[in-house]
Design a protein that fits this description.
about 150 residues; mainly beta; Immunoglobulin-like; four-stranded antiparallel sheet; three-stranded antiparallel sheet; about 35% strand
Length: about 150
Amino acid sequence: MKAIIKISGLFIVLLGLMACGGKDPFPYDISPELRIVSAGPEVLREFQDSLIVVLEYKDGDGDIGFENPDSAALWVQDIRLSKPDPYFVKPLSPPNGEQVSIQGTLRFRLRGTFIFGNANMEKTVFKIRLKDRAGHWSEEVSTPEITIVK
């Protein structure tokens, strides 16, 4: 009788695992993933032109963005500077507490780029990271080299 119970219990566990199908509840990693779709123009006139960056994102649990505008999710660093600038991103999924996998695009504009020295032009790259509400960081992505002219 004990052998039948053990086999039945094992069968129920196996049946439960097969019913789940081994499907991952999050098709993406719970840390945000970033990819640069585009960044341009490659030549900017200082104080006049804006750099437009389009990012593709994925997040397994959908916790990108904040309701509080004083919280930053997007961090952009001009490599000529020592620290990144933080940017607000509104929640990218409904804030009802349900964890859902999300993907999409973010588009943002960097205004007011300028030359630090006395030259007529400088080159730079912008490094970008995304932080979710749980504190997970994306890998850093970098724009192509951008030239700033007077």
